[in-house]
Design goal:
Layout: H1 2-11, H2 15-28, H3 34-52, H4 73-88, H5 93-105, H6 108-112, H7 117-127, H8 132-147, H9 150-167, H10 170-186, H11 193-208, H12 211-217, H13 223-226, H14 230-246, H15 253-263, H16 276-285, H17 289-306, H18 309-323, H19 328-338, H20 344-360, H21 364-381, H22 384-396, H23 414-424, H24 429-436, H25 440-454, H26 462-466
């Protein structure tokens, strides 16, 4: 009962009370109640990170970097919390992944909790550019349907939306995040949940090129809810910085970045809405490029410490763009860093930046191929503003852009790829709909899109086309 109460308090905007309840119960709980103790310890640390106590206490988790070699879901929850602490403090991906494998591997974490600690595992796999994140999201969805858990479904919609956003499946991302907003409205919200959903939905719309829609999603009337969760507030502030930069208002970014620096000092990982990237880009836009480059160098060092390809590519790309023609080496390295990874949108941005800078360096012939690839990827991702900008660069480089988008398996969205793979294995549309918890009509739409992109006409051709 104490574990349930602690979680309810956390998700209803009372993290301080949640941390207090967990601490009080732990103080009177016998040492031999090991699993319950671990559950309460994990929930207490979550409550602290949500603003329910002294953030300095998260440093206590550093003593457990090797995790918990104990049975039971409580130990798996603590493994997840320790992994989050290490990732936020930019421990290398290789040190975090073993903790995640133990946290999730035996299935007890998903069975015991489908909306909080399993989300941590999904979040970290996504930050690490790991394909396992897709399977975890599918597991969460199946578990939520099995339990009839509206909260579990909300968690899947929210964080699978972010997963799609990170991978560059922008249409799927916007749809999933809009679903999260709808589910939150039906559920009358959750502390921080509406903030996460609004911010991530705004980010997805921004990447699609809908700046006005993004600002509408980041509804100022929601500001009263922002600080119900310190974690959600960080994501909100990070997305607000992105929208301000896209709107040509860099001077307004600086105080928000400073707030991120002082109030979220425990999050150094650049993939978790850190302050250095928006501040550096704002300084560069304001003509303070030397200061910007110093910060960009720090961000690159942190990205390399974490080691996820998309994080390294983004940091190299941003520094390269600030350096102009002197940054061509950075931009080429950004493309190489993310080539062949799931992060298609970051690859498109790196290719676009490389091609644009080559053209500005009066090397139009060299610029055309990266720009062509950037255009195909941007089209496939649904990044309409990026595609239009790249198309203009191609014309300026003396090329005639192709009118068709990227074709083949690389053009499929995550949803289209899952449906096509199941169809290739012999599943019927009805079976696919049941396994993915969607309607048969949705399956038909995804298959139709997949056939068009793969250049085929029937199920019999799917296996070869996907290969």
């Amino acid at each position: 009962m104490a574990t349930l109460l602690t979680q309810i308090l956390t998700f209803t905007g009372a993290p301080e009370e949640a941390a207090r309840v967990a601490g009080d119960v732990l103080a009177g709980l016998p040492e031999d109640r090991r699993d319950i103790r671990r559950r309460l310890e994990a929930q207490r640390y979550v409550a602290i990170q949500w603003g329910g106590g002294r953030l300095e206490e998260v440093r206590d988790l550093d003593a457990f970097a090797s995790g918990f070699d104990e049975p039971g879901p409580g130990a798996r929850m603590m493994d997840a919390v320790v992994a989050l602490r290490l990732a936020y403090d930019v421990a290398p991906v290789e040190e975090v992944l073993p903790l995640l494998e133990r946290a999730y591997g035996d299935g007890s974490l998903l069975e015991a909790d489908d909306g909080l600690f399993t989300v941590v595992v999904l979040l970290l796999h996504t930050m690490a550019d790991r394909d396992e994140a897709l399977g975890i999201a599918d597991d969460m969805l199946a578990r939520a349907h099995h339990r009839g858990s509206q909260f579990g479904l909300l968690a899947v919609s929210l964080w699978r939306g972010w997963l799609h956003l990170r991978r560059g499946d922008l249409v799927d991302a916007a749809d999933s995040l809009q679903q999260a907003l709808d589910e939150l409205a039906a559920w009358h919200g959750a502390a921080g949940g509406d903030v996460y959903a609004a911010a991530l939905h705004a980010h997805a719309l921004l990447e699609r090129g809908d700046l006005d829609g993004a600002w509408r999603s980041l509804d100022p009337r929601m500001r009263d809810h922002v600080w119900t969760s310190l974690e959600a507030a960080r994501w909100w502030a990070g997305v607000e910085c992105e929208l301000l930069l896209a709107s040509g208002r860099p001077e307004e970014v600086l105080p928000i970045a400073e707030q991120l620096r002082t109030e979220h000092w425990h999050v150094r990982n650049p993939t978790a809405m850190s302050w250095r990237s928006p501040r550096a880009r704002a300084l560069h836009a304001l003509g303070r490029t030397e200061e910007a480059l110093t910060l960009a160098g720090e961000a690159l060092a942190l990205a390399r410490s974490w080691g996820a390809p998309s994080a390294v590519a983004r940091a190299l790309r941003e520094r390269g763009e600030m350096r102009g023609e002197d940054g061509l080496e950075d931009l080429a390295a950004a493309v190489a860093a993310v080539e062949g990874t799931p992060a298609r949108l970051e690859l498109a941005k790196a290719l676009a930046a490389h091609g644009r800078t080559l053209r500005h360096a009066r090397r139009p012939a060299d610029a055309r191929e990266p720009l062509r690839r950037a255009l195909e990827l941007a089209d496939a991702c649904g990044a309409e503003a990026l595609a239009e900008a790249v198309r203009s660069e191609l014309y300026a480089a003396g090329a005639r852009p192709r009118t068709t988008a990227l074709s083949g398996a690389g053009a499929l969205t995550a949803s289209e790829r899952r449906v096509a793979a199941l169809a290739a294995e012999g599943s019927s549309n009805r079976d696919i709909a049941q396994s993915l918890f969607v309607t048969p009509k949705t399956v038909e739409v995804h298959l139709s899109n997949a056939y068009r992109k793969l250049g085929i006409r029937s199920r019999r051709e799917l296996t070869a086309a996907l290969a």
